[in-house]
Specification:
The complex is a heterodimer of chains A (296) and B (415). In chain A, 69% of the residues lie in helices and 0% in strands. Chain A has 296 residues and is mainly alpha-helical. In chain A, 46% of the residues are buried. With 415 residues, chain B is of the alpha/beta class. Chain B contains 14 helices and twelve strands. Chain B has helices spanning 9-23, 28-31, 54-66, 95-100, 116-125, 140-153, 163-167, 171-182, 220-224, 250-266, 331-339, 349-355, 363-382, 399-405, and strands at 43-48, 72-78, 91-92, 106-109, 129-132, 157-159, 191-195, 276-280, 294-298, 304-308, 386-389, 394-395. Chain B has a six-stranded parallel sheet, sandwiched between helices. In chain B, strands 7-10-9-8-11-12 form a six-stranded mixed sheet. In chain B, 54% of the residues are buried. Classes of the chains: A mainly alpha (296), B alpha/beta (415). Chains A and B meet through helix 6, helix 8, helix 10, helix 12 and helix 14 of A and helix 1 and helix 4 of B.
Chain lengths: 296, 415
């Protein structure tokens, strides 16, 4: 059976059902229909109900039975964003696939990233089922201003050394928004090998990037960054000072749990002694409390 | 032999909390002093997310503080929709500017839930106390991060649902809690069924919305924040944001914590979570929250919690509701229960701010009740039974489900 025929078995939305009704006979009916056709109005959402789970499994299995060719046929139908059914069936396949089907689906989706008009949809599905198999295909989008956030989300969800390697590889040539995204993900995945790269971010005029780098180095627990982070926090004002100070405290926590007590103590003592503004008393208290807890 | 004191991150935060209580941080607004406001001084407040429920959230914080003799004056409002009012001194479009103000002590948060955790954490890092609307979070990993920040900075954080305060005064609930917390009930056969009231149809998202131009008065990028930057549609803002996984989790997220927070207190589940979760639902749409029938959640002690929407499919009929009974115990154990002292009353937000102690609806307990909502939604979205480790906040043996427990955030936003 053709994929387009399978899709006909999926339920229609309220909007589609309304469009099929005969023309309204009274002005009241006309008004009511008009309101129903504007689902963006408050409380008038499309009351979408998916099919019986058994039917959805059966439809997904039929596409899988067609192998890669069947999946490609479905992906081609995603180009029409007004029709929810191809996107929905693809997601059903993502959810219901067994291990073997999942690998086939992920590889096939990844192979279409260059050509499809529905890249965001494909990346979203890979965020569910992507594995090391698709990491290389995603790496090249880390330099693409439009797609780097979505591609990074997939790699971050996959995690592991293969994903980290793609982030690290893309970092030196990156700029702007993509660079911030890469720094954040290197920190999220606690990549100690990126510490040197992250420390270089403190030369960058972009304060968002410096804040992300501080947080990333704190998560990594990078002892050589202590003075850099303290200097950055001490010199900052407003929200930047709040977040940079938090990064300093996170670094101290990380070092304390690595049994680097003297490093942690140095940080806490610095915060306790330098946050002298009455409105920063809570930071002095926080540092004092941590010195007590860690018996520093 | 020298004893090595090794600290894990989790044990560290527990000890931090204990130390915080022991060394008793000076309550700066209450004790007064040369650099401290006097007890009679009114606290400075701000509301972040002013639409819909926002004013009510702020009033809840204000009443709670007034109840213990503390005033609260609103000094700032913040909402991403107010680009045209950005120059007004007390109205902001960016919450970061609000948190910079040193005259603000209390933050009320009523944004869509995808911002709750991040603003809560940033506010506590800035030294503010927080009252945050429910649901506490958009996904499970956020809840633990909020609780960590609450302990790290010794701030007061309270979720804006108050059913547990009433539940904790009901003698029947007090007895139930004592029985379950005592550990004397070896085999728990209790079944609690919450039927209806979860607004499933009401907060369904659109599955075929056509993208539209972003209105000139909306900062769409900031609105999306940590969530993916999707094409704009008006149904994604305002109350109808509830119908999208990017911002909330349908009616279950919207209403669930109201019902499940008092449940958590009564049945002694504030410090644990179900270990097995199964849903009866059609396959969920990847973007829009939709219909579901029921969700069954089993705890390690045998307790079963059921959410039955009453809005899709056949009603739940696997088990009948069954209460926790004193006569489930031996006579000797019954006497032990009846001899147990009552717990001290839960502290409301105002009292917690005044005493510098944890609020009754603090981040740890709110995290547990919001976890119930999220686990139910994960079971609905994955279409299969999931097993959960309450200690580690992780789904066991299901990588895809785990990706919904900890979700990537769009830079520069992170936990």
């Amino acid at each position: 059976m053709k994929i387009s025929e399978l899709l006909q078995q999926l339920p229609e939305t309220d909007r589609e059902l309304l469009a099929k009704l005969p023309p309204p006979e009274t002005p009241e009916e006309q008004k009511r229909r008009r309101q129903q056709q504007l689902p963006e109005s408050w409380g008038n959402a499309s009351k979408f109900t998916g099919p019986d789970p058994g039917l959805a499994r059966k439809l997904a299995a039929e596409v899988f039975a067609g192998g890669r060719k069947g999946i490609l046929e479905l992906i081609a139908l995603l180009d029409n964003p007004a029709d929810y059914k191809p996107e929905y069936l693809l997601h059903c396949m993502t959810v219901f696939a067994n291990d073997r089907q999942q690998k086939l689906l992920a590889r096939t989706i990844a192979s279409q990233l260059d050509n499809s008009k529905a890249r965001a949809v494909l990346l979203r599905e890979l965020q569910w089922i992507g594995s090391d198999d698709v990491v290389k295909a995603l790496g090249k989008y880390l330099a693409d201003e439009k797609l780097c956030a979505d591609a990074a989300a997939v790699l971050s969800a996959i995690g592991g050394s293969a994903s980290v390697s793609e982030f690290r590889k893309a970092f030196p040539k990156s700029s702007g928004k993509c660079r911030t995204i890469l720094a954040q993900n290197l920190g999220a995945l606690r990549d100690a090998k990126s510490a040197d790269l992250l420390r270089q971010c403190f030369q960058d005029p972009d304060v968002d990037l410096r804040l992300i780098a501080a947080w990333a180095l704190a998560r990594i627990g990078d002892a050589p960054s202590i003075d850099t982070l303290i200097k950055f926090a001490d010199a900052s004002q407003g929200y930047t000072r709040v977040k940079a100070t938090n990064a300093v405290l996170l670094l101290a926590e990380a070092l304390a749990t690595q049994s680097r007590k003297s490093d942690a103590a140095r940080i806490y003592t610095h915060i306790r002694n330098t946050r002298t503004d009455p409105k920063e008393k809570y930071l002095r208290d926080t540092a004092e409390k941590h010195l007590t807890v860690f018996m520093l | 032999m020298k004893r090595i004191h090794r600290i894990t991150r989790r044990s560290f935060l527990k000890e931090t909390l204990a130390a915080g209580a022991a060394i008793s941080i000076v309550p700066r607004h209450v004790l007064g002093g040369s650099d401290q406001p006097s007890p009679s001084e009114t606290l400075g407040g701000a509301l972040i997310g002013v639409g819909g429920r926002g004013p009510g959230t702020y009033n809840d914080a204000m009443k709670s503080l007034q109840g213990v003799g503390l005033g609260l004056t609103k000094l700032a409002d913040c909402d991403v929709r107010w680009l045209d009012r950005a120059d007004n001194k007390t109205r902001y479009t960016d919450f970061r500017r609000v948190l910079e103000r040193k005259d603000i002590d209390v933050i009320a948060i009523a944004t869509p839930p995808h911002w709750h955790a991040l603003i809560s954490i940033a506010a506590m890092e800035a030294g503010k106390d927080v009252m945050c609307e429910k649901p506490m979070t958009r996904f499970i990993g956020e809840g633990r991060a909020v609780a960590d920040a609450e302990k790290r900075y010794g701030r007061v954080w309270q979720v804006c649902t108050f059913g547990r305060f009433g539940a904790s005064k009901d003698p029947k609930n007090i007895l139930t809690r004592k029985i379950l917390k005592s550990g004397l009930l070896k085999k728990c056969e209790a079944v609690h069924i919450k039927r209806g009231g979860l607004k499933v149809k009401e907060w369904s998202g659109l599955v075929n919305a056509t993208p539209q131009p972003v209105p000139s008065n909306l900062d769409w990028d900031l609105y999306c924040g940590p969530s993916p930057l999707k094409p704009y549609h008006p149904h994604r803002v305002g109350g109808t944001h509830r119908g999208y996984w990017d911002y909330e989790g349908g009616g279950l997220s919207d209403m669930g914590q109201h019902a499940l927070d008092p449940f958590s207190w009564t049945f002694g589940k504030d410090h644990t979570a179900p270990i097995e979760i199964e849903a009866h639902a059609p396959p969920a749409h990847p973007e829009a929250c939709g219909m579901w029938g029921w969700v069954e959640m089993k705890y390690a002690d045998g307790f079963t919690l059921v959410l039955d929407s009453g809005e899709w499919g056949k009603p739940y009929d696997r088990k009948q509701a069954r209460e926790v009974r004193l006569d489930d115990l031996s006579e000797e154990d019954q006497k032990k229960i009846l001899a147990m002292p009552d717990e001290p009353p839960l502290l409301g937000f105002g009292e917690a701010v005044k005493q510098r102690k944890r609020a009754g609806g603090n981040a740890d307990v709110a995290h547990r009740s919001s976890t119930l909502v999220h686990l139910a939604n994960i079971a609905i979205r994955t279409g299969r039974k999931i097993r959960f480790d309450p200690e580690r906040d992780q789904v066991i043996g299901d990588e895809e489900a785990n990706r919904l427990v900890h979700q990537p955030m769009r830079a520069p936003w992170h936990l």
